[in-house]
Amino acid sequence: MNSIVIAMTGASAMQIGERSIQVLLENNQDVDLILSKGAYEVAKSERNINIPVEPKAQCDFWRNRLDVNSGKLTCFRWNDHSASIASGSHKTKGMVIVPCSMGTMGRIASGFSSDLIERCADVHLKENRPLIISPRETPLNLIHIDNIKRLAIAGALIVPPIPAWYTNPQNIEDIIDFIVVRLFDSLGEDLDYIKRWDGPNK
Predict the structure, then answer these.
(1) pLDDT by residue (tens digit) across 19-29?
(2) C-alpha span between 194 and 180 (Å, rounded)
(3) How far apart are CA 116 and CA 110, in angstroms?
(4) Nearest Cα to Cα of residue 33 among 93, 78, 90
(5) Which residues, 6 or more positions from 165, have their beta carbon under 8 angstroms from its beta carbon?
(6) What is the layout of strands, in order, in the sheet containing 72-76?
(7) CATH code of domain 3-185
(8) Contact (Cβ atoms closer than 8 angstroms) between residue 163 and residue 188
(9) What is the DSSP letter of 52?
(10) What confidence tens digit (pLDDT) does each residue in 43-93 have?
């Protein structure tokens, strides 16, 4: 089974990335996970969690934190340029960057690969594989908008983490689940965690 690459960068909204990992593993998917250097700091400051950097320890950390034993999880160091997913010969279903910082997005748009996330994104673009970017910033300046445009032209799909209200969310978890499912709809993954729109109530 080809894997789905999940990347979390140093932007706010790590909860969406966490839930993405959990949902995919619960659906018995293979997940390749990369956290940027900044993501560890965001986890500490926003989530009060210390995520191990060493890949084996990090996999154990996520398994315990998310309470899921199914699926296959492989974790990579942010600076491991020799990782399997850094090569175009390594087949994947696609890559999702959630949340994506403006810095990461700008470097990908410029073809500048300073870490494994950016290199892996470049690989997905050059191999014409799905690359889904979920940028987490507001307001957007003209540079951000131009980078979004460049990435869209290059083949990436831009899926901002925007909730819907027709689902009548009852809590933050409902909002996060809607965003996560919509992210993976774009990869053709049918994750049955939300109420979908089927027209107005009669």
Answers:
(1) 999 999 999 99
(2) 10
(3) 15
(4) 78
(5) none
(6) 72-76, 30-35, 3-8, 92-100, 131-135, 157-158
(7) 3.40.50.1950
(8) no
(9) -
(10) 999 999 999 999 999 999 999 999 999 999 999 999 999 999 999 999 999
